[in-house]
Design goal:
The protein contains 21 helices and 23 strands. With about 575 residues, the protein is of the alpha/beta class.
Length: about 575
């Protein structure tokens, strides 16, 4: 078969390309001068690095004109290659002999595509997007892999925006990863290369323009098809430039552990597993409050399973972060993360079960959805997160404790001058409109902070089923200017949260402390976590009699940014947090 006999657009591509490769090119950093054909070879090289050495049996799904399949056969691989077009397969047999070629679809009833046939490698190069049901694709692949050393090599365009589905069948990476993870596949290798394949689009458009006369001569529809393909490539280029479309490569392995998002009643296994992992008795009411009833969305959970047995768990809850009086965004607080003891040896480092569950969680709930994610971790988990999860942890947590001398002074003081200047304190167990009012007044005094409005405070503290909290609401001439949030335990008064207007804070802080110590005469210790930012808040804590010491578990604030131009260090410098911003209070 001659190139002119190929159906559109394959005859067009044969005219503009000096090879039979039909896939995108890849321009590594510093190699912008590669031709399109050289860039296509570079992408083939990235994929080749994921192959086992020959001889191995390879299934090429969507082989196009047979260039890759023929090259693999020449290297000593046993190759079965397929495409749903008789014309393409005829061309491939003539020009790239060696493989066993099949003119069929992958999900067709074909003996070589069904068990007991076995393959060491299954390759899908820019072909997954043409399958409406990718679960069926991965399910069949699962039956064809020889063993756990077998691999699936997948590269394709991906959609980062729902609007692209109106013009393209390209799948989202979340859909792809959730589908293969639920069937027991995990990524042993992954690379995002959208910016490196983008030059394919303008290069192809330029060649269409340069060879327009030849292309029109090869057209059998007066150029309508050519116009359609030019329009499509123009759309692709614009979508890449906007970040709506990208390109990703995966090398997948398979085992008997599946990873998926939350399903109704999973908590019936999550809670006993959590209690076993941490030695802490947590009731279903806590789980429902934190995850199911979170006003910002619910639930955000990824779980790993061996059959019906829970193996690992990674979860978080979304929060609204106020960046300024006019702007807010989503962040995620991570908590309740564990691997069951029987599964802690499953993989190591980046291939460990916890890393796999984190990856699933990240793609499902983080990427392009949140500004950053954070949690408070011990040094062991901190190091693991830095090495394998991409977290940065350079912000130690400090506990601020009120010194004994000042504690006695606040308890004895009547603060007559305070009250003469219009300050008063009321004990609150519910959250009213005053919470919104003080947040609006105090907002500009802080950098970034969780949006401490009425809705959030009601969920975080009033609805919490585990503890009874008290708000000490400080007013001046009847207007709320700040509050302390406390929990009493024996002779300890734990300060979990606070928000004060800066201009009235020096007196308001003291008034609140005095009121709570008059309320709890037996208290001997007053302490809580507070961030080092903003500086004026740290200075006022020191002036009020507090001194910082390293938190006793040596916890760190751990961060991962999902905003390209914002580093975790920059976030830490802006983030006002308290003990209540963790799930440990």
């Amino acid at each position: 078969m001659s190139p002119a006999q190929l159906p559109q657009p394959f005859n067009f591509y044969k005219l503009i390309l000096n090879s039979d490769a039909l896939h995108y090119g890849y321009w590594p950093e510093g190699q912008a001068d590669l031709s399109l054909e050289q860039a296509q070879e570079a992408l083939t090289g990235v994929l080749s690095a994921q192959y086992p050495p020959p001889p191995a049996r390879v299934l090429d799904i969507g082989c196009g004109l047979g260039a890759s399949a023929g090259a693999l056969a020449q290297q000593g691989y046993e190759v079965v290659a397929l495409a749903p077009s008789e014309e393409l397969i005829t061309y491939a047999r003539q020009h790239h002999p060696g493989p066993t070629y099949l003119a069929c679809g992958f999900l067709d009833d074909q003996p070589l595509l069904q068990a007991p046939e076995q393959y060491d490698v299954v390759m899908l190069q820019e072909s997954l997007q043409y399958f409406p049901d990718i679960q069926a694709v991965f399910s069949r692949i699962k039956t064809l892999l020889r063993d756990e050393k077998s691999r699936v090599i997948l590269c394709d365009e991906v959609s980062y925006s729902p609007t692209t589905r109106e013009h393209s069948e390209v799948k989202s990476p979340v859909e792809i990863e959730q589908t293969f993870a639920a069937l027991g596949f995990y990524a042993a290798f992954h690379q995002i290369i959208g910016s490196q394949v983008l030059p394919t689009c303008p290069e192809t458009l330029q060649r269409f323009a340069d060879q327009r006369a030849e292309l029109l001569a090869a057209s059998d529809d007066e150029g309508k098809g050519l116009a359609h393909f030019i329009q499509g490539w123009t759309y692709q280029m614009n979508a890449y430039e906007k970040g709506d479309i990208g390109y990703e490569i995966w090398a997948l392995r398979h085992d008997d552990l599946s990873v998926r998002t939350y399903q109704a009643s999973d908590e019936q296994q999550i809670l006993p597993a959590f209690n076993q992992a941490f030695g802490v008795q947590r009731e279903v009411e806590h789980w429902q409050w934190k995850f199911l009833n979170n006003p910002q969305g619910a639930p955000c959970t990824s779980t790993a399973w061996q059959g019906h047995t829970l193996a690992a768990h990674y979860s978080g809850y979304p929060l609204r972060l106020s960046l300024s009086a006019e702007h807010s965004t989503s962040v995620q607080h991570i908590g309740d993360t564990f691997t069951m003891p029987a599964f802690r040896g499953q993989g190591r480092g980046a291939s460990s079960l916890l890393a796999r569950v984190f990856r699933h969680f990240e793609r499902s709930y983080f990427e392009r959805q949140v500004h950053f994610a954070y949690g408070f971790n011990t040094d062991k988990i901190r190091r693991f997160g830095q090495l394998f999860l991409g977290y940065t942890a350079d912000t130690p947590v400090y506990n601020w404790q009120l010194n004994a001398e000042r504690l006695a002074l606040y308890r004895q003081a009547r603060l007559r001058l305070v009250y003469l200047r219009g300050y008063s304190v009321s004990l609150e167990t519910e959250v009213g409109d005053w919470a919104d009012e003080v947040f609006a007044r105090a907002r500009e005094d802080y950098p970034w902070l969780v949006q401490r409005d009425r809705r959030y405070l009601h969920w975080r503290y009033v609805q919490n089923p585990d503890f009874d909290y008290e708000f000490y609401r400080v007013k001046r001439w009847g207007t709320t200017v700040g509050w302390w949030l406390v929990r009493k335990q024996g002779q300890h008064l734990w300060l979990g949260d606070a928000l004060f207007c800066r201009n009235t804070a020096p007196i308001a802080i003291a008034a609140g402390l005095s009121a709570m110590l008059h309320q709890h005469q037996d208290v001997q210790y007053v302490e809580g976590w507070f961030a080092e930012k903003p500086t004026w808040w740290q200075q006022l804590l020191s002036s009020a009699g507090f001194a910082p010491t390293r938190q006793h578990e040596q916890l760190y604030l751990c961060l991962k940014s999902y905003t390209p131009d914002l580093t975790p260090t920059q976030i830490a410098e802006q983030f006002y947090f308290t003990w209540g911003d963790s799930d440990l209070f």
